[in-house]
Amino acid sequence: MTGLVLGLLPAPTPVSIDTYLDRVLDSTGLPGVSVVVTHGHKVVHATGAGHDAHGGAVTENTPMRVASVSKSFTAAAVMTLVEDGRVGLDDEVHDHLPQLPPRITVRRLLNQTSGISDDSVDIGRLTEARTLAEYVDLLPPVDAAGPGTRFAYSNVNHNVAARLVEVVSGQSYEDYLRRHVFEPLGMHDSRAGGDAPNGFNSLYGVWLNRPELDDGPAVGGSGTMITTAHDMGRWLIAQNGHGPFATESLDTMHGPSDVHDYGMGWHPDGNGLLVHSGNLWTYNAIQAIDPKSGYGYAVMTNGAALVDDTGTILDGLIALSRGGAPAEPGSPRQLVDLVLAATGLLAVALGVLGVVRARRWAERRRGRRSWLTAVRLVVVGLPVVLFAFYPQVVSFVSSGRTVLWAQLGYFALSLTVTLAAAALAGLAVLTARVVRLVSVR
């Protein structure tokens, strides 16, 4: 009966979307959010809520960084070259960019099956590049493993694809994307890179106004795009078949590769939608289209933390479009921040206590087994070891994506500060105990 009642609820309207977005802002505490919902060839509603770094209201025209959502735009730019016969999807990239090894085709770059992974290149070195040409020149050596045989998500693929656009077209990637994707779609406030208002990072629930991290080409194909909710509405309509892209091109971009369900900047979510998210250091975004119903959605936030709220907000918009009532918006981020803050304070308190009691501890160790004392010292020093290998640990749990020290001071700021506090406390206790052990002998 409940399902029947929900099914009779009206489809989304500007009022229902605005009401939902206000609830989202209140419950998540995000600084600013912009969204758009489309249906068929029409925009149902594009809007925003909250504030930007300058204190202005976030609206449907507020520029937002969309991170890896940029990848679907790079795929679209390449597909326009394919439609014009200027490059083939099965052409080897090596023929245009000799810095790349053979057997990597254009298709394999776009569907992340080139054999390139973060482990196959020096990601830290690539952050030095400021242009796509410099980026590709810094790539060698590239240890591409079995092109076409496995999926490995890496920003390198789409940055190389953007450089390919430049070489084949004879234009900068920024100009080509503007002339052949943005302008035909009427996306007049979108660009491949450049300035946008500062974003925010959460430090134990306090949102800090921060500039975006400068860690790669100013204009790239993997994550530098800036757009608005208004413009994303034009894009989503085109992706649902009401635009300049050929049906065959859309099918190619949306469809899976031979070895994975990831397409070219899109992948199925298991519920009949095609989606792609984007996580930058101070911004988050997600886009989705429902080929069956013709709905399209985009959610963009100017705040980034350990917990990304864009997926939850998207779920609410989908519920509205399917005649249902969205779940009460909320975010576990506040709880995560509270736990991390409490852990950091506890670590500091234990560190102070350990230093104060170091002499008493050392005196108790006299005459006892030295190996047991050594074990206790090692345990105290574990937070120091963990923090020393912090980037490697995060990279490991991030499914092979390389995360650098500088990046951990952004989206993971609360965790980084907590671990640093624990490491300093552990180091202080370890030092005090060793000094006291030496002095009492």
Provide tags for this entry.
441 residues; alpha+beta; Beta-lactamase; 2 domains; six-stranded antiparallel beta sheet; 16 helices; 44% helix; 12% strand; disordered N terminus; CubicO group peptidase, beta-lactamase class C family; Beta-lactam/transpept-like; membrane; AmpC-like; transmembrane
Can you offer a commentary on this structure?
The protein has 441 residues and is α+β, with helices and mostly antiparallel strands. The chain folds into 2 domains: 2-321, DD-peptidase/beta-lactamase superfamily (Beta-lactamase), CATH 3.40.710; 333-439, no CATH class. It has helices spanning 2-7, 14-28, 70-83, 106-110, 123-126, 132-138, 155-169, 173-185, 229-239, 247-254, 310-321, 333-356, 358-365, 370-388, 390-397, 413-439, and strands spanning 32-39, 42-50, 64-65, 199-203, 206-210, 226-227, 267-268, 274-279, 284-290, 295-301, 303-304. A hairpin with a 2-residue loop joins strand 4 (199-203) and strand 5. Helix 3 packs parallel to helix 7. The protein is globular and about 80 Å long. Residues 1-8 have low confidence and may be disordered. The chain crosses the membrane at residues 338-358, 370-390, 410-435. It comes from Lentzea xinjiangensis.
